[in-house]
Each structure stands twice: as structure tokens, then as C-alpha cells.
Write a structure and sequence with these properties.
Pfam families: Glucosamine_iso. The protein has 385 residues and is an alpha/beta fold. 36% of the residues lie in helices and 11% in strands. The strands form two sheets. It has a seven-stranded parallel beta sheet. A three-stranded antiparallel beta sheet has the order 4-8-7. The structure holds 2-amino-2-deoxy-6-O-phosphono-alpha-D-glucopyranose. The site of 2-amino-2-deoxy-6-O-phosphono-alpha-D-glucopyranose (GLP) has 13 residues, from loops.
Amino acid sequence: MRLIIREDPKAVAYYTANYVRQRINEFKPTRKRPFVLGLPTGSTPVEVYWHLVDFYKRSEVTFRNVVTFSMDEYVGLPQSHPESYCSFMHRHLYDHIDLHPKNIHMLNGNAEDLAAECQRYEEKIKEVGGIELFLGGIGPDGHIAFNEPGSSLESVTRVKTLAYETVLANARFFGGDVNKVPKLALTVGVGTVRAAREVLLIITGAHKAVALAKCIEEGVNHMWTLSVVQLHPSAMIVCDEDATLELHVKTVRYFKSIEQVQEQLIGRQNISLKGSISKLTSSDISHQFSAATDPMASSAAGVQVDPSNSDSESSAHDDYSTRPESEDDDVGSLTDSQHSDNGSDTSNADMSSSTNALAASSSDAQCTTGFSGSSVPAATVGSPF
Ligand SMILES: N[C@@H]1[C@@H](O)[C@H](O)[C@@H](COP(=O)(O)O)O[C@@H]1O
């Protein structure tokens, strides 16, 4: 799992939208091989959608061959109601991009047979080849879509009774009146989200800090349904600093250090968009060391990641987008501490064995390159520890 921490909700939204844009562009969707995108509602993704609309208007992405599936919908609320998720998706995204209407999939909360509607949805997802990227938000109780605490981690699309906490949280969209909030919803299941080839969750605000901590620092648990991301081979959480308030300092530092290692030691050019290492040789690492110890070259080799700087984010991604597709490339000569459980994701490196990922990486480099230094020079890596 990757945890990307950005300064504030604005930076989170930009990072996320930019990532989606690049995933679509890298995928090069066609009519026969569309990019299948799962999409959330809620206030958190609104700014992500603004950016996507903006990218579309600038011709930086097209949704012509994108197929979408919304996560959920209230039961019994007319589709034309401004707070129906159908209205929401049209208002914030669908009405402003070149998505073909036949490629838009939403749950019908007014279907006569709700169970059949849910089954139809699951079948449709299968028919288009499954979801490539599921974007999601969470509720303060850690729910994904409307998978409230206690939902089966194997659940699929179904009717769900909303938890009181969710009804309270969503009352703000209904003039603060809890009585106006529908008490039932149709929602994709935890299993539906898990089945996606990639999951990206956006979490912002101090009110979601407990949920984030429960979900990533404790065990997989149906009371915190987001925790299921721990089992997903390709999951990423993008959060702001406020959402990290309940995490251990060690956790935050570790995940931040991963980005530093990628930038400064492994090299941005060797990391694919999805975070896997491609075609890295020991001499690349050796080069990083020698370049970094050369004061004239260190600025080129050790570019500091500025999480709050959208421009630097943009250029990082622009670099990725010019690279050939390489998500599944061989990992090259890196050692175990840089491999994930699935063998391709640096961010999945075992936390206990490499809490200090910088040190782990440097010792690998010593083994493979014969570098005789005792550790990565602190000035080079900007050690967060
Ligand atoms: N069903 C939706 C979820 O999909 C969403 O993640 C959550 C968070 O909303 P917000 O982003 O407004 O906090 O709201 C609702 O419960």
C-alpha cells in the first residue's frame, strides 16, 4: 500500500486528479479496451473532478474511451433530486467532459427490484472486464462507498442500511435535517472495491484521522471497512497532513521517506506511475551515490520533494508520462527490502525491517556496488529521522 501525504486538501485533489489523468493516458484506452473507472461522491472528490474537467478542457485527457461506475446511490430519492448521487456526478463531472452516455453506469435507487438492480450492476462490471481504477473516499467511521461498519469484507453490490453516524454526516447536504436523509442506499460492496485492479482512496481532514489510523495501523477488520486496502496488491491512499494526526510519527515518517528514496536514491525515471521499480541496475544506485557526493551534481541527483508544490508534482508526473508503460517490468537487481510482497512496489516494503527505508536502501547499495560509505550522507537524502 502506498500512503501519499500532501499538505492540504487542495494538494491532495491535484495529486489525485493528475494521477487519474496519467493512468488514463498511459493506459491508452480504445473502444474495445476501455479504461474502467470507479467513482465516488462526497465533498472530498469535488475538487478532483474540477481538475479532471480542467484537464479535459485543456485537451490533456479525453474520456472518450473511459467507462465509469459510481459507487453508490440513495434509495428512494428521485434521480433529479439535487442530492441524488446521479445529480451529483452529472453536476460535477459528467456534464463537462466527453464521456459517452452509454459508458456511464450508476445504480438506480428507484428500481422496482433493488436486489436485481444490484446484481445487474455486478454483471455489468464483469462484462466490461472489471474496474481498472477505483477511486474512493471514506466516511469518518472508515466506510468505503456505503459499506458501513460490520459490512462483510467479501460483500458485493447490495442494499445497505445507513449507520446513524453516516446519516448525521450527510445531513449537511439536506439542510441539516437528519429526517430528510434517506436511510437506505445501494452500494458496491467491499468485495467489489477489492476486485478492482487498483484502488485509490482520498482522505482529508482531522475528522477522518482516527479512521485512517484504524485502517492502516491496525488489523483488517469489518468494523473499519477501509482496512481491507491492506489486502489489496495495488492500493494507494492520498491524504492531507490533518488526516495523519492520529498516526504514529513513525508511520508518517516511513511513508514520507519512501518518496524521498524514490526521488533521491532510486531516481524518478526508474519508478513507474503505479510505484513499481523498473529496470534499475546496481550502477544506477551507484550513480546516485557518486552524483550525490559530488557537490556540483547533488542538486540534480537529490531533488527534494516539495509536497505542497503543485508544479513540482506536475513535472514529476510529466516525467512518468513520457516513459513507456512499465508497471509490470522486472524489478532488476534490488534487494528484498525494496520489494513489496507482490514483488513490485517499493512502498510495500516490510515496515518492521525497513522502518528507516533510507538506511535499508543504502545498505543494499553497499552490497551490490561496493560503496564503502557507512550510510547515505544525511545531506543527500534529507533524512527525516
Ligand atoms: N457514500 C459516500 C461515500 O462514498 C463518501 O466517501 C463519504 C464521504 O464524504 P465526504 O467526502 O463528504 O466526507 O460520503 C458518503 O458516505
